[in-house]
Specification:
By secondary structure, this protein is an alpha/beta fold. 37% of the residues lie in helices and 14% in strands. The chain is built from 13 helices and twelve strands.
Amino acid sequence: MSMRLLQQHISRSASARHSQQFRNRSAAVRCYSSGFRSKDTSSYNSRERSQSYQPRQDTRDKWQREDRGRDDRRSWPDRNDRDRRPPSREQRPVWGRDRDGPADRPVTSTSLLQDNWVGDAVYGVNPVLAALKFSRRSLYSLYVQDGLRPVKKQDQTAVSQAVQAAKDAGAAVNTASKHDLNIISGNRPHQGLVLDCSPLSFVPIDRLEDAMQSSDDLTKPPLWLVLDEVMDPQNFGAALRSAHFLGANGVLTCRRNSAPLSPVVSKASAGAMEAMPVYSAQNLPRTLAAAAESGWQVIGAASEASSVNCLDVQMTQPTLLVLGNEGVGLRTTVRNICHKLVKVDTGHKTEFDSVDSLNVSVATGILLHQLLSSRTKRI
């Protein structure tokens, strides 16, 4: 029994000794963090705890002597100096510039590039080449991405042609970082080329005869594409691309409630917008009605049960192919002028199929190809 009591006494003494050592260590850590290196934990009190660590006076003097004569480093802040503030934006070091020396590389600022921008930012290899080739815009400056290395060989040739064409046209050729070109192009795929040039506008007409080109082939009836309030720039540009590639004689749209001739449309058209004029009518239904009275056939695209399959349409006279808005289709005033409505039949019919129509740009390509393939020569 006495042996058990002795073991309990030894265990309690060891626990008490370990607890006291732990408390001493914790107090020493708190003292060190507050700036006191004294091993005497009994002198640690609440008044000394509130004081912050300050270096010795001779150490402060030494630091101030080392900093004397240097303008780019601040001396040790005084405790009573309340008027010091962080350096302003103008006083901070400029990106790309060494603090203790001159600029080691030219500093490019996106804000300066945006402030000096004059016109539209046409981006992409094909739109830039087309804008330089057809010269329908006033050219200001061509910006090439710094260190541009196109992966495709044809892109390398296109970039060289664009630079040479800009120099021949008298436009300045500058380099800019990829970040700056991303900002200017709205984070769109610029492919390392952005052209600063004047914007393009619609060519206003009231009668279709005013836009007929003297170089048009008179042996075949002409076919014009009419876009009735197509608002999406991607669809608008894709429709222009199809019309230019397939050989439509012209494109007519609304003067209002239509996608403008923006750099986004130019990129979506792969440069077709730069090559062909786009005409606009103040009152599209009135212009279509006047054309119908002059002998033009007006065909509207509509996915209705009463619409005729495009494969059954034969183009024998001057024709206007009208496609409507992405959401609502043809307006009622435009639909009433159409001589017939055509559609593209689906390849399979299912009861629960969610895809019941085509995109307006896709339907434009199919209908243009079918009508141009079916037109016959004039006798």
